[in-house]
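FORM 7B: Structural annotation worksheet

SECTION A. Query
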Amino acid sequence: MCRLLAYVGPPRPLYPLIIEPEHSLVAQGYAPKEMEVALLNADGFGLGWYDRDRQSAPFIYRNTSPIWNDINLPHLCRYIQSGHVLGYVRSATPGLAVDLHNCQPFSHEDLCFIHNGYIENFRQTLYRPIREGLSDRAYHSIHGLTDSEHIFALLLHHLETQPGISLEQALQQTLTVLERLASEHSIRIAINLVVSNGQRLVACRYDSTGADPSLYWLRNHPEFPQAVILASEPLFAAAWETCPPATILAVDPDGHLQSQPFHPADMPPGSPVSWPVPA
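SECTION B. Predicted structure
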């Protein structure tokens, strides 16, 4: 499983977030502490950040090299400043190419998305069922082969087909569809993800078996005042809080964090999930 982080707070250079911490994303690339399956995250990395003074869409930097091999990254991270950042290092699922199209973050218009987890036997199980239910626009947003990008497309589908719903509602419906499909195919889904529109950031920690991938948050640390950091693994020694399993998180532009449990069993078939697209 991959590693991720997100930051919402006062604008600051990326270096103290991405490079400098003792257990930074760079360190998590070659020495992760809480990985369930793989030993390394050496199959690429990516950053997404927002600068609303320039444009509403996120800026994206992706590379298929291991994060520790990119000699340009420290310089970029000293130069780039943002108050809304997503970062990711990849451990590729066997059989899926190390390719820029498969490297995160994924973006669409003002959205930026990262995912840590997997769909069991994705190509043989949920690849076709997910694609067959997507709206045309969501379908054509897919450029790679990963389960992560298909989860993002499913989220886009709900946002597009139900104008006005919130990111939290779209995420809840996405998880509900995935849970139902996983149950039908008797497979496991593990979904830690973060999605942002540059204003509001929404995340979740969920696993259909209850063995949820690790996710932590840290609020208002002295070195990051008035900020929230989400991370697969703590970046440094501090009072990190563990996100409860089966939980959806939301962080607003002022750094206020809210959480709510996700219970797919409480949502009967057909409500309020729009799937597949009505004929």
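SECTION C. Observations
The mean pLDDT is 91. The chain has seven helices and 13 strands.

SECTION D. Sign-off
Analyst initials: ____
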